[in-house]
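To: structure desk
From: M.T.
Subject: fold request, one chain
Message: Could you run this one when you get a chance? Sequence is below, nothing fancy, just the single chain.
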Amino acid sequence: MIHQRLAKFFSSDVGIDLGTANCLVYVKDKGIVLSEPSVVAIDALTKEVIAVGKEAYRMLDRCPLNIKAIRPMKCGVIADFDITGEMLRYFITKAKMLMSPRHRLVKPRVLVAVPSGITEVETRAVQDSAERAGAREVRLIEEPMSAAIGSGLPVAEPCGNMIVDIGGGTTEVAVISLAGIVEAKSCRVGGDEMNQAIIQHMKRVYNLLIGEPKAEKIKIEIGSAYQLSDEEVEMDVGGRDLVSGLPKSIKVSSREIRTALQEPVTSILEAIRSTLERCPPELASDLIDRGIMLAGGGALLKGLKELIAEEMDLPVNVAEDPLKAVANGTGVVLQNMDTMSRNLTAG
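Reply: Done. Structure tokens follow.
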């Protein structure tokens, strides 16, 4: 008992949004201290880690043969156990350096947000990776619950709250009431799938090969899910011509990128519709007034809010800071760890 009290006094709790595209770290009483891409660069021969996060992301599709830039998370879960462990160790160590000297003395308790559709094997992989990375105790929280809390939804009330968290690898849809998930669906479609749709469009239509960072830039600058105005915009895109093998630049319009994104966007709409169809009638009626809350980086896609509102005939809102909703949710839970413990899975 005394040991536990000392550990609590000398350590600081850490919340991690372990995303496919980005990893955000929340330190109790300090807020979000890190937000970096979930990318690790390694030496292809020795497997030694060369860079993590922002520095490694800059190496994507730009590495020499002896260096590999890897995304160890695929579809929201661990694809490479060892590399994810190294990435978590880097983020936890970096977070500890931002803590007070007193809080660096003891290993931190770590709360990790994971997809709702995660398997037992994947759950164990996340827990083991966090423990190997230096966590004293590991707890897990489902991403949609954390996103709902971080978006400010009254999850503890006896009424229906719907959250749609569109991340890099997964879209998490959930109806929440009385601090529990009533209905949920996790589909492995998100920002990465949208990027791949743009890459395939450029190959098919222009015989132009582009990398993932370029596809991400196109999505952010001219991508949309719904036509918001009559004026379409264009963008210059450079890449490698698949026929000649030479560098080539072409112009693409927002209209054709919207068409390219249609398939992943439709998958997200189907996940929302499927969850609504299974929702108990009393909670469904609550959503007529409360509507749907969007979170995650995908919520920033232009026109997505308007498209969902039209297709579902419900009001739709975007979280104040959608990219940080899950991480902020872990922060709220860390502050109230004992009272909110029933939403957590012990490591």
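Reply (cont.): Residues 81-97 form the longest helix (17 residues). Let me know if you need anything else for the meeting.
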